[in-house]
Structure formats: structure tokens, C-alpha cells
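Need C-alpha cells for this chain, all 209 residues.
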Amino acid sequence: MKSVPDFSLEIECNKKYIAGCDEAGRGPLCGPVVAAAVIFKNHNNIENMPLISDSKQMSAIQRENAYQWLINNPNVIWGIGQCSSQEIDDINILQASLLAMKRAINALSVSPDFCLIDGNKMPADLQGKAVVKGDAKSISIAAASIIAKQTRDKIMSELAKKFPQYQWDKNMGYPTQQHLQAIEKYGINEHYRKTYRPVKERIDKYDCA
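Here are the C-alpha cells for all 209 residues:
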């Protein structure tokens, strides 16, 4: 039975402004890792809320409906942070994900009193706690996962207009068979994460040729 996120963790914190934070894009071979932070100003004054759950368990239509509701709702404060492929190569994907989360929290229009971070690690210098599988437990984290996912997908779809041969609007940078074949045929560009094995192997292969 799937867990349904609610406000239980937020209520337990007993703070005014509680930010849920999650990221999207750790696995792709290219593009940024994107994080979002979300604060619900009033847990008791929410009308017409659509399905908000772990973004990976939602359909594309459900995610987009929830995304539009969240970003246009006056009861929701949200912020976005990201790290580029170059930053991912420089500091590794874990540290880049944590940095993107910190940037998302810093982008909020109010400073949170407490942060709920999806995963098992906290970004440095933040007051809060890490919650394993938090997007299945906390609505704030689940909402952040939706905004992060939709924001990153839109970034990749825009990049796909410049580089249509890779079909990033369909694979979102993940290592599908078609994507790997496109890399083999067309090479890599500045948006690729050069420390990721399928990309690094190709660089090494041609460096040695």
C-alpha cells in the first residue's frame, strides 16, 4: 500500500514557516540538478488541492496540474535552486544536490524556521532534519519534488530545441538506449556531466584513439 503524504511532520515541528525541499535530476547524463523548496503558509486553509504525492508516482498530467496549482497559489511560497553540469563535475552529484537544495531554500521570499529535506543528508548550515523517502511522508517535500521535476523537465525541453538530435525533451537526459546511440553518433557538448561513466567512457575512448 502506497504511503500518502500529509502535514504530520510539519505539525510535529511546531514552527511557523516549515520548508519542504527535494531535488530532481541526479541520474541524468546531462543538464542541471534542480531543487525546489516549498512552504505552505497555512495548513488549515487549503482549498481545491490536487493530488500531491511523490512526483515519481504521478502521471505527467497529474504532475503538471499540481505544479500549476502550487506555483499560482497565494498560500504557497516556493523557490528554485540548481547546479550546472560543470558544478556537478567539480563537486560530485551528492554535494551538488545539497547545494541546489540550499540555493532553493535561500530563494524563498521568507526564511524558514525549519527545513524538511528529502533523503538522509542535510545541506550545511540549515536548521532542520533529513527525512528518508520524505516525498511519501510530507506534503511540503512532495510539493517540492513536483516543482523540481517539472522545472527540470521544462529546462531540458528548452535545451532540446537547440540540440534536437539528443531528444532531451523525451529522455530528459537519462541514459536510454536511444540517448546513448545519439551520444555515440553526435558526441557530447557543454551540458553533459563528464564525470558520469557513460560520458567519461566515451571521452576516454576518443582520447585514446
